[in-house]
């Protein structure tokens, strides 16, 4: 008798025994848990996406694979983002994900924006960085705080054809974000901006700049005000930084030399710029977390097949237990980072306090991205160390995560402050 016949006989025998037993609780028919009303009322999992969110995921995955992927290596070598790639982002509605349709945007959710960032980062973190900063910092500042007149004038351009840049950091103002030296002098019907910014992403391609400057230094950070500035007003794009990673994403020094900005170009209230910056940067950290999750998944995706093609000692190296333990660990960490990120994104959509969770998501996702990329280079051996394979680029790109939009130490400080407040009362 073969094994299947033996198994069938045993199952039949067990069934007869079970039929003869009448448990005391069996007076009511047993229903599967998923059929109960309680189960039906339970919240869905974090990867339950709306039709709109899934549509964005599909569109981005297709665009990134078909249009971005063939250009990734060239753009990295030339440290330049091709205009047709940027135009493709606009054409697919990816530069105005959350912008209301009345301003030419897609009117999507915050999770949709995060989905876009993650999917792009699986292919090229540089393109993802441009899209993330444009959506979560620039568009968000204008959408949330600018008067309707400014939205009508600039938000439509930002959603359809003009790259935006978020200008906060200065030489003496990094982690201490509000030690700004850039000044805005009130001249009656306009302000005059003088100063410089550095480490400004998207600046080489941008036509519109969200600029933070102090109108009254005697008030400290309470003098910081947010302005909408056009390149044609006199913004000088100075030194372009030569970077370790995300090379196709431009990072430049900006100079403001007696730049005249109309008073109607003030975003929100005078002196409230510090508040606006804090709010959008907290949201922006979720975007960076999504970028790093995408990066980690991207390098994992391109590396894993190699482990089952490369043979040593008579078998694929991916079959060795020592390798299996490593990639199982990394896969688990990527999933944890993704769960943290999407949970925080949902919290933000629900109007909950998400500051601590955003810091946690960014901190952990950046750590995982570095570990995943580093391990992938190791797993591939010599070829992983060459530019022939994308793992080394993903490793270079991963390092920025622990630096921009708040260093890892700043995230730890934010988390610690929240915990002190929670447990010391």
TrEMBL record:
- Residue ranges of the Acyl-CoA dehydrogenase/oxidase C-terminal domain? 271-419
Question: GO CC annotations?
Answer: mitochondrial matrix
Would I find Transit peptide among this entry's keywords? yes
What keywords are annotated for this sequence in UniProt? Answer: Acetylation, FAD, Fatty acid metabolism, Flavoprotein, Lipid metabolism, Mitochondrion, Oxidoreductase, Phosphoprotein, Transit peptide
- What metabolic or biological pathway is this protein involved in? Lipid metabolism; mitochondrial fatty acid beta-oxidation; Amino-acid degradation; L-isoleucine degradation
A GO term for molecular function:
short-chain 2-methyl fatty acyl-CoA dehydrogenase activity
Acyl-CoA dehydrogenase/oxidase N-terminal domain residues: 50-160
Q: What is its EC number?
A: 1.3.8.5
Q: Which reaction does it catalyse?
A: (2S)-2-methylbutanoyl-CoA + oxidized [electron-transfer flavoprotein] + H(+) = (2E)-2-methylbut-2-enoyl-CoA + reduced [electron-transfer flavoprotein]; 2-methylpropanoyl-CoA + oxidized [electron-transfer flavoprotein] + H(+) = 2-methylpropenoyl-CoA + reduced [electron-transfer flavoprotein]; (2R)-2-methylbutanoyl-CoA + oxidized [electron-transfer flavoprotein] + H(+) = ethylacryloyl-CoA + reduced [electron-transfer flavoprotein]; butanoyl-CoA + oxidized [electron-transfer flavoprotein] + H(+) = (2E)-butenoyl-CoA + reduced [electron-transfer flavoprotein]
Family note: Belongs to the acyl-CoA dehydrogenase family.
State the coiled-coil residue ranges. none
The Swiss-Prot or TrEMBL record lists the needed cofactor(s) as: FAD
Gene3D superfamilies documented for this protein: Acyl-CoA dehydrogenase/oxidase, N-terminal domain, Butyryl-CoA Dehydrogenase, subunit A, domain 2, Butyryl-CoA Dehydrogenase, subunit A, domain 3
Q: Does the keyword Acetylation apply?
A: yes
Q: Which GO terms describe its biological process?
A: carboxylic acid catabolic process; fatty acid metabolic process
Q: What does the subunit comment say?
A: Homotetramer.
Q: Where in the cell is it found?
A: Mitochondrion matrix
Q: Which CDD domains match?
A: SCAD_SBCAD
Report domain Acyl-CoA oxidase/dehydrogenase middle positions. Answer: 165-259
Give the enzyme's main class according to its UniProt record, as a single word.
oxidoreductase
The domain of life for this entry's organism is Eukaryota
In Swiss-Prot or TrEMBL terms, this protein is called Short/branched chain specific acyl-CoA dehydrogenase, mitochondrial
């Amino acid at each position: 008798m073969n094994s299947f016949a033996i198994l069938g006989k045993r199952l039949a025998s067990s069934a007869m025994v079970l039929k003869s037993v009448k448990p005391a609780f069996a007076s009511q028919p047993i229903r599967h848990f998923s059929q109960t009303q309680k189960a039906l009322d339970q919240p869905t999992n974090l990867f339950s996406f709306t039709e709109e969110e899934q549509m964005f995921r599909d569109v981005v995955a297709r665009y990134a694979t078909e249009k971005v992927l063939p250009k990734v290596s060239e753009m990295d070598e030339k440290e330049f983002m091709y205009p047709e790639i940027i135009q493709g982002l606009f054409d697919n509605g990816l530069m105005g994900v959350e912008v209301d349709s009345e301003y030419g945007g897609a009117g999507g959710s915050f999770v949709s924006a995060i989905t876009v960032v993650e999917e792009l980062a699986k292919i090229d973190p540089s393109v993802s960085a441009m899209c993330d900063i444009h959506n979560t910092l620039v568009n968000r500042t204008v959408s949330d705080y600018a008067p309707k007149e400014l939205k009508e004038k600039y938000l439509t351009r930002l959603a359809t054809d003009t790259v935006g840049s978020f200008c906060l950091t200065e030489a003496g103002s990094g982690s201490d974000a509000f030690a700004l030296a850039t000044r805005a002098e009130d001249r009656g019907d306009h302000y005059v901006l003088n100063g410089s910014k550095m480490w400004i992403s998207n600046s080489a391609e941008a036509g519109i700049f969200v600029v933070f400057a102090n109108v009254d230094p005697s008030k400290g950070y309470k003098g910081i005000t947010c302005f909408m500035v056009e390149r044609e007003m006199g913004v000088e794009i100075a030194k372009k930084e030569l970077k370790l990673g995300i090379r196709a994403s431009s990072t430049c020094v900006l100079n403001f030399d007696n730049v005249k900005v109309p008073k109607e170009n003030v975003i929100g209230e005078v002196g409230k710029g510090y508040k606006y910056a804090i709010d959008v940067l907290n949201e922006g950290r979720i975007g960076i977390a999504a970028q790093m999750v995408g990066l980690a998944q991207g390098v994992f995706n391109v590396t894993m097949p190699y482990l089952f093609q490369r043979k040593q000692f008579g078998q694929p190296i991916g079959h060795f237990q020592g390798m299996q333990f490593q990639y199982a660990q990394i896969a688990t960490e990527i999933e944890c980072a993704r769960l943290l990120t999407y949970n925080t994104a949902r919290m933000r959509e629900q109007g909950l306090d998400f500051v601590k969770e955003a810091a946690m998501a960014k901190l952990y996702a950046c750590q995982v991205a570095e570990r995943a990329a580093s391990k992938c280079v190791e797993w591939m051996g010599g070829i992983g160390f060459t530019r022939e394979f994308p793992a080394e680029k993903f490793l270079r790109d991963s390092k920025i995560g622990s630096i921009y939009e708040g260093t890892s130490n700043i995230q730890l400080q934010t988390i610690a402050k929240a915990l002190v407040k929670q447990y010391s009362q």
